[in-house]
Each structure stands twice: as structure tokens, then as C-alpha cells.
Design a protein that fits this description.
- The complex is a heterotrimer of chains A (358), B (299) and C (253).
- Chain A is built from 14 helices and 4 strands.
- In chain A, the strands form 2 sheets. A two-stranded antiparallel ribbon of chain A has the order 1-4. In chain A, strands 2-3 form a two-stranded antiparallel sheet.
- Chain A has 358 residues and is mainly α.
- Chain B has 299 residues and is an all-alpha fold.
- In chain B, 74% of the residues lie in helices and 0% in strands.
- Chain B contains 12 helices and no strands.
- In chain B, helix 3 crosses helix 9 and helix 6 packs antiparallel against helix 9.
- The N and C termini of chain B lie far apart (55 Å).
- With 253 residues, chain C is α/β, with parallel strands linked by helices.
- In chain C, helix 3 packs parallel to helix 6 and helix 5 packs across helix 6.
- The longest helix of chain C is centred in the middle third of the chain and has 20 residues.
- Chain C is globular.
- The chains are: A mainly alpha (358), B mainly alpha (299), C alpha/beta (253).
- Chains in contact: A-B, A-C, B-C.
- At the A-C interface, helix 7, helix 8, helix 9 and helix 10 of A face helix 2, helix 3, helix 4 and helix 5 of C.
Chain lengths: 358, 299, 253
């Protein structure tokens, strides 16, 4: 009823190629953005903003980065956390060592350094494919963490390798409250998500997907293999780097290299899988799911223990959580390998017909 | 340079490499026979070791515990085949890989849920002391335990190699690894084959679990042993049993030597990544590993 | 003469796919390569296109000689092709696949694309227009947003032709464009091919098994058997050439 396309004609290619061709979608997007920018900071409570929503946004950005590399360009990478670490530590150093550097500039520098690292560790992709490449990206993950730990310069020679992100100041206005940090994160993530969407629907995105689907054919029609793969690594790492910088400045505050372990890389990979490979929306859905899931489990187990009047140990909870988590991944892969994004699409298609059956 | 020290380090490295190979063997088996890169191998090693040790600690006779654990691994293999692999037949390899990552989590959670998460000690009866006549004759210290592990690995490899090359089941396994649909089309019972394969891989995981558990204790970090096996696979190729052994030896040796001779120069701790970088460099020269099969892209 | 293949030999290990093959292709003509299975026809196209490198011989394209061609270079020089086993990008829609064919004509860098303003947007829309012309021409408007993996074989082949045409090639290599098609589909395909040759002047080299089609639409024919050239001439000559008849009927030699 509500979600009808009838009457919406596209008379130019520009209209046809919009991100949201259906008017209802455009309205919905505006509503969501208004809600996110205006309503949430006003009504959101401190805990939710600082411990759940902000990290969700940050991880969604990292998921977006990994999706660009693995989902669109088909290069499996297990080194995401390492790129985030580079972003975090280099943004810190930029703030520290370059006087008068605006915070966004530091973030960008963090991203660019991560992009450089991604470029270097992406070079093997020209020779190596598939799982071999994935294992090779582990080299990146372990090496980068070791380097950040050992080379004192990164952590300003702090004895424990821990850094404390500086206070953020934008145009004289201090960004310290959870709401302020949330808004900054939201703004950056929204802009970068838009850029990613634009990129993936233009020639770059098509080149990535061509390389993913059949790289020999892509080469035959003129797509440059080397440039395309390296660009994918660089852009993806840039996104992860900025996400890492945000992770440090707007979420953790105090950062140690151990915050960026292989575990985090896997978490982000799961966000990509569950959210939907090769989908911008999917990155957000997957990040939301994996961020909220442990919370539901915790609340659920609390409720259960109260209802049954039984003490459930936290170790048990975390083990069960692990099992359910793994089970869900397998479940998703069996039932809908294209993830939540595809489920969303199916829902929308059904919505177009509603309330009619066909 | 002290020669006997060098030999000691080299030998230690080679023997450590053999331990890596033990884990890599599990990967190769499953990959060779079902085309699946089983990331859960480390979790299987952990599960096997933990089950065995917990049974023994509860008073079960060691041999009985071994048999029970083996049975558990076989049951585990059957369950995995039923619940995870069967619904995912013919999906692209990457999907199966991701499923095994999910499986890893399930196994890790299950192991600790069932047996608790404290570390355990595991005694196999072979002490971790230097071989006497070696250390007395040539002043070289090589652990008895390491040699024992090498022997076990050697026997295991021999048995597996014969199994794959000479038996009818081995041939069927190789067919399945190549092409599921074609294998089905010639009447190979896919489900039985996979159950057998995962069962055998479970057995290999058990052996690896016992060796590693005896050396490092049975605790959660045992799952990460699988990560160490990955560079071995990169070098040896995912499909080759001799490759797993050779790859293990190369990785073990270079890693130990680098740790001892290069490490102090750059602040130590390079074991975390050195093996990977070696494998990476190796791959740049031979993208399919030493014995991996070359892929020709036909268009 | 737009293309000349001289003394090309290609082998894979012990298998000799091509032995000392030479022929030429005039500009604007439709040249057919025929021969029994395994004669080396696809390998010949792969050599022209740069996918395989021959051990001996050379290729002259537009007066320039190449010992070996890189496939990207070939694409840049104006050679496009379709494949026997469809080489479309299964994860993308028909429209996107055809748009990838225009990649060599796109100039904007990724930063401009990310911002989607001015030059990038204009370029994208301009190439969309060109792709739509091809979609109109090939009568596939109704499936333009369908992921290619879901299309039936005949339509996929048409989309692949569209992608090749999108590059506005001077030389188009078609590897069995009508395989697996029924009579109507073949007639449609012939119509498209002839239109491309007439209208745009594109030179065509095509591998085809359907003799009726070959005799009807080609100007000249090359016949390969076991990697060697056994005949070369106009269709009428080829039809009555004893060696060709023997090769197809499988007379021992």
C-alpha cells in the first residue's frame, strides 16, 4: 500500500541511477538521518551512546572497509584489525607531533598511513589468491602488531605501549561528552558511507566486482589487474584506518596494541558475512547485529537466571554465547549466504506488494 | 659461532616443525578429501586433548580414555558432516571456510562448557629432557620428547600416505576433493566419505592434541596452535601430505633460527610473525606452495 | 589488411595446439575459422587476443608487429571478444556487465567518483547512454537489472556480445557465439552480427560450427585441423574442398 512505486517515472538516466530511486526510500532515509543526528543525542542515555551506539558506528565503518576489499573485490583479508591499529596510532602521533593539526586531519593521516600499509601487504595479491591470500594477510596482522609494540616511536615511548588519545577540539569547541563524540563519529561515518556507495556504483566498483567474479575476463576487457587490486586494498585500509582512529579517540580513550588482535579481525569479518557480502547497507546491519547480540544474550541470561532462580556463572554465559555465535554464523551461511542485506531486500519486495499476496 | 649450539637450535627447530606438521596434517586431510579449509582444526585439537585429559583426571584408564576420545571425535565428525557440510554442499569454498570459523567458536565454547576452562597437565610418559648420549658425546641437547613426537608424526604420515595412495577409499576421497558433483555422479557416497574423512582428521587432531598438550599443557591457547600450522600449509601446499611435513620442517627450522639469531637484533618476539613472512615470501615465488597443484585458468 | 597471423605455433607441454598457422584478415570483413573439435580454433583466438603467448610466430595488428600480446594491450588497441564458456561477471547485472565493457573509455579517477559530482557523474551518465544503445540494439531491455547468473544461456551469450560491443572495437573475436541456440535465436544473433559489421564496419573473426551460418554470413573462411591450416578461401571454395570434407568426416590421415 504505502510502498508503491507506481507513478514514479524516471525520465533521465540521472534519476534512474540515484542511490534511492524510490521516493519512499528517500523519505525514509531523511527520517533516519534526522533521527540519528537530532533525536538520538537528545534522548540517548550516556551508557548507550558511549558503549553501544558509538562503537557500533565505528565498527560499521571498519566493516564497510573490509566489505570493499572482500565483498566487492573478492580479496579475502584477515588483517583488518591491524589496519585499524595503524590508523589509531598514526592519528595519535599526528595529533601529538604536528602542532595545530585539526582532528579530522589527524584521522585522515591515520587513514592514509593505513592505506599505505594496506598497499604494501596487498602486493602479494597480484600473485596469490583465495585462502593463500587470506593466510598471507595474517602476516600483516601479526607483523603490524609486533611493530607497534616494539617500535617505541608509535606509542611515544610509553613503557607499556599504551597511548591515551588526546582531547578532541573542533573549532574551539571541545568534544568530550558522549553525545558530542557520537555526533562526530556519525558525521564522519555518514560521509564515508556515502563516498563508498558512490564509489561502488561507478566504474571503480564495477572493476572491483569484475576482478572478484572472473579476473581473467576482467583483464581481457581492459581492466588493469594490479591497479584495481591495490586500489581495493588501499581504499579498504583507509576506511579501516579511520575507523581505528575513531576507535581510539571517540570510544576507547586509552589504547593498547592488544585492542587490535586477530579476534577483532574475525569479528569484523563476521559482520561482513552476516550483514551481506558486497553491500553497503549490509555492513551496517551486520555491525548492528554483532554489537547488539552479546547484549541480548547477557540480558537474556540474566532474565533466565532470575526466572529459574538459578545462578548462571559468567563463564557459562560466555561459553554459551560463543557457541550460539558460531551456530548463528553457520545458520546464516546455510539459510541466507547473502546475509541480512538480502533478507532486507526480500522484505522490501514483499512490502511492495503488501497487503496484496502477489 | 658455536657449532654444537647451532645444531641444537636447528634440531630444536626441525622438531618443533614436526609438531606443526602434525596439526597441518589434519588440515591437509580434510582439504584433500572434501575441498574444505577447516579452520576449526585447532579447536578440534583442543577438544580432543581436553576430553582425554579430563577423562584421565576423573580416573579413567589412559587407554580407555584414548578410545573414548577417539569415539567422541568420530561422533563429532559425523555431526559436523550432518549439520554443517551437508546443507552447504556445492557452496563456494569461501562459504565453507566461514562455516568452519563458526564451527571453531562452537567447539571452543563446547569444550569449555563441558570440561571447564582451567589448564591441565598432560603426561605421556616421555620426559622433556635431553637425550643423554647426544648431550654427553657431542654436547648437543635434544629433547627426548621432541624425538618421540617426530617418531609419532613419521608413523602417522606413513600410514596416511599409504591410505590415500593405495586404497580404494583413498581414491574416492581424492575424487570427492576434486569435484563433489562429479563424485556423486559416479556413485561415491559423499556422506560416508566425509564422515570417514572428518573422523580420520579427528584422530589426527587427537594425536596432535596429545603431543602439544604434553608439551605446553592443555589450555585454551592450544586452539592457536592451528594458526601456527597455516604458514606450513602455505609452503607445503594445501593438498599434500609430504608437503605438510616438509613445510613444517622449513617453518620450524627458520623460525627457531630467526628467533635465536635475528631476534635479539630487533628486540625479540619475532616468532609471532616470522613464519608468516617466510611463507609469504615463499608464495611469491611459488604461488601454490611447494607441492600444491597449479591452477590453470581456462577461459 | 587489419590483422595478419604469421607462422604461429603454440603448445602446452607436449600438446601442440597450433602448428605454423598463417592467415590474414581484411578490414571490415567477416572471417570464419572452422574445423573439427580440438583443431585449435579457440587457442587461435586466445593468441590473437593475448590470453596465450605463442612459442613461435608473430601477429600483425594494424601494421604493428607483436611477438606476444598482452590481453590488456589488445583490449586497448581495439580488440574485443566473447568466449566459448561464457565469461560474464556473474555477480553483476546485465547493465553493469555492459558498462564494464566501457571501462577503457572512462577517465575519471576514484576520488572524483567517490564525490559523484561534475565530471564523474557526467561520464557515468554518458556511458550509460552508450550502454543503453547497445541494450536497445540487442533487445535485452527487459533484463537489464537482472543478475547475469540467473539468465538462460542464450541470453547470457547476447549479454556477452553486448559487453564486447560496448568497447567499440575495431576487431571483434567471437568464439562460438551461437552455440546452444535454437533457430530463432541463431537468426537473431546473425542479424546482430551482420548489423555490427555493416553499420559500424567492425571486422569480425568468428568461430562457428553451424555450416549454414558460416557459409551465409562470412566473406572468407580458414579451416584448421589438428592445429594446422588446411584450407583458406571463400565459402564456395571451402565447401567443395576435399581436404576439408575429409577432416570433418574423419578420414584417417
Amino acid at each position: 500500500m504505502l510502498y508503491r512505486e507506481a507513478g514514479q517515472f524516471k525520465s533521465t538516466y540521472a534519476e534512474d541511477q540515484q542511490i534511492f530511486p524510490i521516493r519512499q526510500d528517500r523519505i525514509a532515509m531523511v527520517v533516519v538521518l534526522l533521527f540519528a543526528f537530532v533525536v538520538v543525542p537528545l534522548i540517548g542515555d550516556q551508557y548507550w551512546l558511549s558503549a553501544i551506539i558509538t562503537p557500533f558506528l565505528i565498527l560499521a565503518l571498519a566493516t564497510l572497509g573490509l566489505n570493499i576489499l572482500t565483498g566487492y573485490a573478492g580479496q579475502l583479508s584477515l588483517g583488518t584489525a591491524a589496519f585499524m591499529a595503524v590508523g589509531a596510532f598514526m592519528a595519535y602521533n599526528a595529533e601529538l607531533r604536528i602542532p595545530g593539526m585539526p582532528i579530522v586531519g589527524s584521522f585522515i593521516i591515520g587513514g592514509l598511513c593505513a592505506a599505505a600499509v594496506g598497499f604494501v601487504f596487498g602486493l602479494p595479491s597480484l600473485r596469490i589468491k583465495g585462502f593463500y591470500l587470506a593466510v598471507a594477510t595474517l602476516a600483516c596482522q601479526f607483523f603490524v602488531l609486533w611493530a607497534i609494540n616494539r617500535v617505541g616511536w608509535f606509542s611515544n615511548h610509553s613503557s607499556s605501549g599504551v597511548i591515551t588519545a588526546q582531547k578532541i577540539e573542533i573549532l574551539g569547541y571541545a568534544v568530550v561528552t558522549p553525545a558530542a563524540k557520537y555526533l562526530l563519529t556519525l558525521a564522519i561515518v555518514a560521509v564515508m558511507a556515502l563516498a563508498a556507495k558512490n564509489l561502488m556504483r561507478s566504474e571503480t566498483g564495477r572493476a572491483f566486482m569484475a576482478v572478484r567474479d572472473m579476473d581473467v575476463a576482467a583483464s581481457v576487457i581492459g581492466i588493469p589487474m594490479m591497479q584495481t587490486k591495490l586500489l581495493a586494498f588501499a581504499i579498504s585500509s583507509f576506511y579501516c584506518g579511520v575507523a581505528g582512529a575513531l576507535y581510539a579517540f571517540c570510544y576507547l580513550g586509552t589504547v593498547e596494541p592488544e585492542a587490535f588482535t586477530l579476534d577483532l579481525s574475525f569479528r569484523i569479518l563476521f559482520m561482513v558475512i552476516i550483514g551481506g557480502v558486497g553491500s553497503i547497507l549490509g555492513s551496517f546491519l551486520g555491525a548492528a547485529f554483532i554489537t547488539l547480540f552479546p547484549i541480548f544474550l547477557d540480558r537474556g541470561s540474566e532474565w533466565l537466571s532470575r526466572a529459574l532462580d538459578v545462578e548462571i556463572q559468567s563463564a557459562t554465559v560466555s561459553n554459551v554465547e560463543l557457541m550460539i555465535f558460531g551456530g548463528l554464523i553457520i545458520f546464516f551461511l546455510i539459510v541466507e549466504p547473502n546475509g541480512l542485506a538480502r533478507l532486507w531486500q526480500i522484505a522490501k519486495e514483499k512490502l511492495r506488494l503488501w497487503p496484496f499476496p502477489h | 659461532m658455536d657449532f654444537s649450539f647451532f645444531v641444537e637450535v636447528l634440531a630444536g627447530g626441525l622438531l618443533a616443525g614436526v609438531m606443526y606438521s602434525l596439526v597441518a596434517l589434519g588440515f591437509v586431510l580434510i582439504y584433500k578429501a572434501s575441498g574444505v579449509f577447516n579452520f576449526a582444526q585447532g579447536a578440534m585439537v583442543f577438544f580432543a586433548a581436553l576430553t582425554f585429559v579430563s577423562l584421565v583426571e576423573r580416573g579413567m584408564n589412559a587407554w580407555l580414555a584414548l578410545a573414548v576420545t577417539l569415539a567422541a571425535m568420530v561422533v563429532l565428525g559425523m555431526t559436523i558432516e550432518r549439520v554443517v557440510l551437508r546443507p552447504l554442499v556445492n557452496q563456494p569454498p569461501i562459504t565453507l571456510f566461514m562455516a568452519t570459523i563458526g564451527l571453531t567458536f562452537v567447539l571452543e565454547g563446547l569444550s569449555q562448557l563441558a570440561w571447564g576452562s582451567q589448564p591441565h597437565n598432560l603426561e605421556l610418559g616421555v620426559p622433556d629432557v635431553p637425550m643423554e648420549w647426544l648431550s654427553q658425546q657431542w654436547n648437543i641437547n635434544i629433547s627426548q620428547f621432541d624425538l618421540f613426537a617426530a617418531l609419532v608424526a613419521g608413523v602417522l604420515v606413513g600410514v596416511l600416505a599409504v591410505f590415500f595412495q593405495k586404497t580404494r577409499i583413498g581414491r574416492a576421497l581424492r575424487a570427492v576433493a576434486d569435484d563433489h558433483q562429479a563424485a556423486l555422479a559416479v556413485g561415491i557416497p559423499l556422506q560416508h566419505i566425509w564422515t570417514i574423512v572428518w573422523g580420520v582428521a579427528g584422530f589426527v587432531a587427537l594425536v596432535a592434541g596429545l603431543m602439544w598438550g604434553a608439551r605446553n599443557g592443555v589450555q585454551y591457547s592450544l586452539t592457536f596452535v592451528a594458526l601456527k600450522a597455516l604458514p606450513v600449509l602455505l609452503i607445503g601446499g594445501f593438498e599434500s601430505i609430504p608437503g605438510a611435513i616438509l613445510g613444517g620442517l622449513i617453518i620450524g627450522a627458520t623460525e627457531k633460527l630467526a628467533e635465536v639469531y635475528l631476534g635479539p637484533m630487533v628486540g625479540g618476539g619475532i616468532e609471532s610473525w616470522f613464519a608468516y613472512v617466510v611463507a609469504l615470501l615463499f608464495l611469491l615465488v611459488r604461488p601454490e606452495g611447494m607441492f600444491g597443484e597449479k591452477h590453470i585458468d581456462r577461459v | 589488411m587489419i590483422l595478419s597471423v604469421e607462422n604461429v605455433s603454440l603448445s602446452f607441454g607436449g600438446v601442440k595446439a597450433l602448428q605454423d598457422v598463417s592467415f590474414d584478415v581484411e578490414a571490415h570483413e567477416v572471417r570464419a575459422i572452422i574445423g573439427p573439435n580440438g583443431a585449435g580454433k579457440s587457442s587461435m583466438l586466445n593468441v590473437i587476443n593475448g590470453v596465450y603467448r605463442p612459442q613461435h610466430g608473430k601477429i600483425l595488428f594494424k601494421e604493428k608487429a607483436f611477438k606476444e600480446m598482452d590481453s590488456r594491450q589488445a583490449a586497448r588497441m581495439g580488440i574485443a571478444r566473447t568466449f566459448q564458456n561464457i565469461a560474464l561477471f556473474k555477480g553483476m547485472t546485465v547493465l553493469d556487465n555492459i558498462m564494464t565493457g566501457r571501462n577503457l573509455k572512462m577517465r575519471c579517477g576514484f576520488l572524483q567518483q567517490a564525490l559523484w559530482i561534475g565530471p564523474a557523474k557526467r561520464e557515468e551518465l554518458e556511458h550509460r547512454r552508450a550502454a543503453e544503445e547497445i541494450i536497445d540494439f540487442l533487445e535485452i531491455q527487459h533484463i537489464r537489472r537482472t543478475p547475469v547468473g540467473r539468465l538462460p544461456y542464450g541470453l547470457q551469450k547476447r549479454v556477452e556480445l553486448g559487453r564486447a560491443l560496448a568497447a567499440e572495437p575495431e576487431l571483434l573475436l567471437l568464439d562460438e557465439p551461437m552455440a546452444g541456440m535454437n533457430l530463432e535465436e541463431k537468426q537473431d544473433m546473425c542479424r546482430f552480427i551482420l548489423h555490427v559489421n555493416d553499420h559500424y564496419g567492425t571486422t569480425l573473426v568468428l568461430i562457428e560450427h553451424d555450416m549454414g551460418v558460416v557459409m551465409d554470413i562470412s566473406h572468407r573462411v580458414v579451416v584448421l585441423d589438428y592445429g594446422r591450416k588446411i584450407a583458406d578461401g571463400v565459402p564456395a571454395e571451402i565447401r567443395s574442398n576435399q581436404k576439408v570434407i575429409d577432416a570433418y568426416l574423419g578420414v584417417a590421415h
